[in-house]
Structures are given as structure tokens and as C-alpha cells.
């Protein structure tokens, strides 16, 4: 397939020395620039990426945080770099090998054919192997965010997505951790950007350890919900003011 070189792959990474090499090698078949944001890892993640970059076999950009700032902050760093370099958009995926890199082509094809502003990879059509508590949590949070957004988004916690340059430039993110992903969806929906869902598989390794903290990240999510009510009220007031 013909690949749009104006799209970059954005991969936030925190302590992923075990899997990131494989993820990078699997992504290389698309010949797209890969923006790796090392979010203050204390393992060998940065060294693995540096070695691959120095081999000149892979089109890598390594951006570094000196301390762990959260997934949302890592994504935001990558977004700013992509806008600065004039990319049409980015496809984000996780560095832990949970996302099947073969499915990147589905995102590229949808961008080419339908030109949406945001594509969310949905695991709900194929959730075999997903822990029950994770499945139940994702269903609940997706229902809440869809209600607030005013349109159905199947998997708001999915990190496998396409985000256009237009969305990145026009949305100011307020959060810094895992709640950034639903925040982006909410604000894109309120701005009437085109949002599509696309089915994806998810890979759960036997030794997979989630960086999501069940207590603190759930608390952050519900804080996001309450904040979003304020944001939405402010957004609607501004919209009415602009119309008048």
C-alpha cells in the first residue's frame, strides 16, 4: 500500500526496555518517522532507542523527559514536535507491545479514504484475553465519556489512535496522565471534529503489568468528568457568544 509520509508514529514510553525494540522493528515496515518520547524511564529504554537510532536502520526521533511526567505529558510533547515539523497527523500506540502494528495500515487506509480528524482503535469487538475488571471499567468510562461528548466512542481508554494536526493545534490539554486520552476525545467532539471508531486487537503478555493505578487513575478520571462539566459549560457559552 502507498504510505502517507506526512503521518508520524508517536510512541510514549516509560520503562519499556523489554518490548520497545520489537515495537520499533515491527513499525519499520511502514517507513514512517517514529517519534519516541521517553518519559523519565529509569531502565534502559532510552539506551535501546539510542542504539537503534545510531544504527540508522530506523527513522527515529527520541525526545526525553528528565523525570516521569505521565503519559498525557509524553503525548503532549510528541504532539508539539509533530506540529512544529508540519506533520498531517500522528498515529499513537503503546511501547509495551499491546497493539498489533500490522493494524497501523487500517488507520492509514481510513485516513486516506475518509479523512477523519480522530480515529479511536476499539478493543470491544475483540476483547478476548482482556481481564474482566479492565473490560468492565473500559465499558463504564466509555459510556460516560460518550454521554458527555454527545456521540458514541467505543473505547475511550485506547491508546491506539490517529489524531490530525488540526485537532492537535486547536485543543489545549489540561491533564497529564491517563485521563488525557478521554479529555482529547471530549474536546474534539465539542468542536465537531469527525471521530471514527475502528476495531483492533489487543495483545496481553503473560507478564504484562499495567502502569494504570486502579485507585489514583480512577480518581483522576472522575475528577476529569467533573472538570469536563465546567469546560463544557464554558465552551458552550463561548460558542453562543461567537454566534451572536
TrEMBL record:
Lineage: superkingdom: Bacteria
Glycosyltransferase 2-like domain segment(s): 10-167
Pfam families (alphabetical): Glycos_transf_2
SUPFAM superfamilies noted in UniProt: Nucleotide-diphospho-sugar transferases
Protein name: Glycosyltransferase 2-like domain-containing protein
Organism ancestry: Bacteria, Candidatus Shapironibacteriota
